[in-house]
Design a protein that fits this description.
The complex is a heterodimer.
Chain A: H1 7-15, H2 18-38, H3 42-61, H4 63-77, E1 79-84, H5 87-100, E2 105-108, H6 112-117, H7 119-125, E3 129-132, H8 135-142, H9 159-169, H10 179-196, E4 199-202, E5 206-208, E6 213-218, H11 222-228, E7 232-236, E8 242-243, H12 249-260, E9 268-272, E10 286-292, H13 296-300, H14 316-320, H15 324-327, H16 338-349, H17 351-354, H18 366-370, H19 377-389, H20 406-419, H21 422-434, H22 446-449, H23 460-466
Parallel strand pairs in A: 1-10, 2-3, 2-4, 4-7, 5-8, 7-10
Antiparallel strand pairs in A: 5-6, 6-9
Chain B: E1 13-16, H1 20-24, H2 27-39, E2 43-45, H3 55-59, H4 63-74, E3 83-85, H5 88-101, H6 108-116, E4 118-120, H7 121-128, E5 140-145, H8 148-153, H9 157-165, E6 170-173, H10 188-191, H11 193-209, E7 214-217, H12 220-232, E8 238-241, H13 242-250
Classes of the chains: A alpha/beta, B alpha/beta.
Chain lengths: 472, 255
């Protein structure tokens, strides 16, 4: 597993790589423009955001009941439901299903939860071939990398780099740089694999408690292939993906797609409600739903951090984040990058390992402004900064206080001490203005690219007094 | 983020919160802000015991330290007058984050009452004072950076433009990626200096591409960051806080 303890080093490497910077800038500009065009009426947009936030808040407020209802309805529909406390447990459930069918080949649709589980590695260690069929995921898998974006996993690569990768991996296929031809090559390679796969695995965008339906949003048709062609379909998703009723789906789907890519509707939308029924010509014989918890229950316990679980994984927060746009997804060293990644991942993995991520934001608010379900991302980042340095162990966040460092804590204590004593503060500021000529010209990295700030000749307190403003 | 706020009638008196960054680096900005308000016939009180809103510690996770400093500010504003702040992020701190910082403390109600009467200077000038400005300055070409807190947390970006648009001799030019953060972010610039440097370098480049002669900012943090970058590159663009800019162009003695 990657760790983010060296976030700074990785982000600096990314900043130093002009190709990565150009690829992200180009891609993020495109996605932002598409969202703007796709949600151009601010009134409609804000109403939809409010409606969708309400749907998610409602679902989370009754999550335990909805999960029971989901299990009941899925089971009635013939979908086998498996609960997993941890990632390990979830992986073993998948493996066990594979073994029951003597299965050695899995074809996968896009699933960030399977990335969270590191399922590919786990299955490969058990001699199971695990092939990604989403084009971006396939590219990332060929390159031996991890996704750098949750909806566009290979966004860090441009078409030249992808063409080069294909040339290396498939020397028999004619070299192409045209994206459509590249996609066609991948399609031909993958088509064969769908027929040979014993098991298809997919993620789930929404699980409807009322009907026991699994909804899957996609653009390539590979999701439909994964969930209908192989004899067994395994869906994996986090327990937070449940919504109460079928009527919640149209607004959520609408806003998810428009926030993510600016499309009015995705090319495919699958609603999986059961395995193949007698007399039906296609569909899997078995459908399994694996629901890993992996710290979600812990996040659920906190009145504020619970909002993390509203996320519908559209990627808009990362598309609009000026930090993500410059360093890309791999720098975060977490399954999910960007603002939502910096909120959700430290809570799952622990602030001891990923505690730097909440600081990787200027708190500019661009993420919160576009979030389709109104997750207060800057507030949550701020909260996790607190959890990282808190001076007691009363909290519940994994790895709390582990980011607290002696010097930094001392600086803030001294800062506080000075700023609660107005007379002393005024004296300190006045002294600073009188000694301003002694101010160093170099102030660490700040002055590598900037002139140092200039201390004024006299403080505001002095000037205000002179003008008679301080006569309260 | 807020959009619809009910604004009161013009008051007789206000409190001015100058902010710590302004105190030491840009005192002329707050002075200009107070003079703009005073010129509209409103008494301005600058409580002398004010220091800092507490935001630096709050955004670094040091909540106890932030709360102690915030508590010291509460004592500065005992009466029911509006509190006007020349910075989007400090105003946002007092208006939106104080209630979170003091949740479940004895000061909870007092803090909420204070938060309700905190205004960013620009929104106060536009919506409460309904100020009319007469430009006395020479022609100027201005690029504006409002600050992310003013734009997204306080929701008052348009008010900055409205004020500048009242100035007849000012041409407001728009830089590319106008709404994008300049990369300051308080301690962000210290913790992640390389990312911050990239952000401010691009911001400065977009601004110099407009061939503006002045950069006006709504927050001194952004101003220090962007102007510091522009000056480092020997750009001739002057950096000014919006209050200084408005005051200098509309006050006969400044011409």
């Amino acid at each position: 597993m990657q760790t983010a303890s060296d976030f700074r080093q990785r982000s600096e490497e990314a900043l130093g790589n002009p190709q990565i910077r150009r690829n992200f800038r180009f891609a993020m500009d495109g996605l932002m423009a598409k969202r703007r065009a796709g949600l151009s009426d601010p009134r409609e947009r804000e109403q939809l955001r409010t409606q969708c936030a309400g749907i998610r808040v409602n679902a989370l407020s009754k999550l335990p009941e909805l999960l029971e209802q989901l299990e009941g309805n899925c089971t009635r529909n013939g979908i086998q439901v498996h609960w997993a406390e941890s990632v390990d447990e979830a992986n073993n459930i998948v493996l066990e299903i594979m073994r029951q069918h003597d299965a050695t080949r899995m074809i996968k649709g896009k699933s960030m939860v399977s990335e969270e589980m590191e399922l590919n590695h786990f299955l490969e260690d058990h001699d199971i071939e695990c092939l990604e069929s989403d084009l971006g995921e396939y590219i990332v898998q060929l390159a031996g990398e991890t996704p750098s974006h949750i909806i566009a996993p290979a966004i860090h690569k441009n078409r030249h780099e992808i063409a080069e990768l294909f040339r290396q991996k498939f020397p028999d296929i004619p070299f192409e740089e045209d994206p459509e031809k590249l996609a066609r090559s991948a399609r031909e390679i993958l088509r064969e694999k769908f027929y040979k796969a014993d098991v298809g695995l997919s993620g789930v965008n929404f699980a409807v408690a009322e009907t026991g339906t699994l909804c899957l949003v996609e653009n390539e048709g590979n999701g439909r292939m994964c969930t209908t062609v192989p004899p067994v379909h395994i869906a994996v998703t986090g327990i937070e993906k449940v919504v109460e009723q079928l009527s919640d789906i149209p607004p959520l789907l609408n806003l998810l797609v428009r926030s993510a890519t600016g499309q009015h509707i995705s090319t495919y939308f699958n609603m999986i409600s059961s395995p193949r029924k007698p007399g039906e010509k296609d569909g899997p014989q078995e459908v399994h739903l694996v629901l890993p918890d992996n710290e979600r229950s812990r996040i659920y316990e906190d009145d504020e951090l619970i909002n993390t679980l509203r996320c519908i994984r559209c990627g808009a927060c990362m598309n609009h984040c000026p930090v993500y746009g410059r360093i890309g997804g791999h720098a975060y060293g977490s399954t999910i990058p960007g603002p939502i990644g910096s909120v959700v991942e430290p809570q799952k993995i622990g602030l001891d390992t990923l505690g730097e991520l909440p600081t990787a934001s200027t708190l500019c608010g661009a993420c919160g402004e576009v979030c389709p379900v109104r997750i207060p991302l800057p507030d949550l980042l701020n909260r996790l900064r607190y959890e990282g340095v808190r001076n007691n162990n009363d909290g519940k966040v994994k790895g709390q206080s582990e980011q607290r460092k002696g010097t930094e804590a001392w600086i803030w204590k001294s800062w506080s001490w000075l700023h609660v004593q107005p007379m002393l503060y005024r004296l300190a500021m006045r002294t600073a203005t009188r000694l301003r000529s002694l101010m160093p010209r170099k102030l660490g990295p700040w002055t590598d690219v900037r002139r140092p700030p200039r201390i004024a000749a006299r403080t505001l307190h002095e000037l205000a007094r002179e003008k008679g403003f301080d006569n309260a | 983020m807020e959009r619809q706020r009910h604004y009161p009638e013009k008051p007789g008196r206000i409190y001015f919160f100058g902010t710590c960054l302004v105190d030491l680096l840009y005192p002329e900005a707050s002075l200009a802000g107070m003079q703009l308000i005073q010129r509209e016939g409103v008494d301005v009180i600058f409580p002398k015991d004010q220091t800092c809103c507490g935001q630096p510690a709050w955004n670094s996770g040091y909540r106890d330290e932030a709360r102690a400093v915030a508590l010291a500010q509460l004592k500065c504003f005992p009466l029911d007058y509006p509190v006007v702040v020349p910075s989007g992020s400090c105003a946002g701190m007092m208006r939106h984050h104080y209630p979170r910082l003091f949740k479940n403390t004895p000061q909870e109600q007092q803090v909420q009452a204070l938060a309700n009467r905190v205004y960013k200077l620009t929104e106060f000038l536009v919506h409460v004072l309904k100020i009319t400005l007469k430009d006395l300055g020479t022609p100027a070409k201005v690029a504006l950076h409002t600050s992310c807190s003013a734009r997204r947390e306080m929701g008052v970006a348009e008010e900055h433009e409205a004020l500048l648009q009242q100035l007849g001799n000012v041409e407001l030019v728009e830089q590319e990626r106008k709404a994008e953060c300049c990369g300051f972010g308080g301690t962000f610039a210290v913790k992640h200096p390389k990312i911050s440097a990239e952000m401010v370098s691009e911001k400065a480049e977009h601004i110099s591409n407009t061939s503006a002669d002045t950069l006006v900012s709504g927050d001194c943090g952004c101003l220090m960051n962007i102007s510091g970058r522009l000056n480092h590159q020997a750009e001739k663009i002057k950096g000014k806080h919006i209050a200084s800019f408005l005051w200098e162009r509309t006050n006969a003695d400044s011409q």
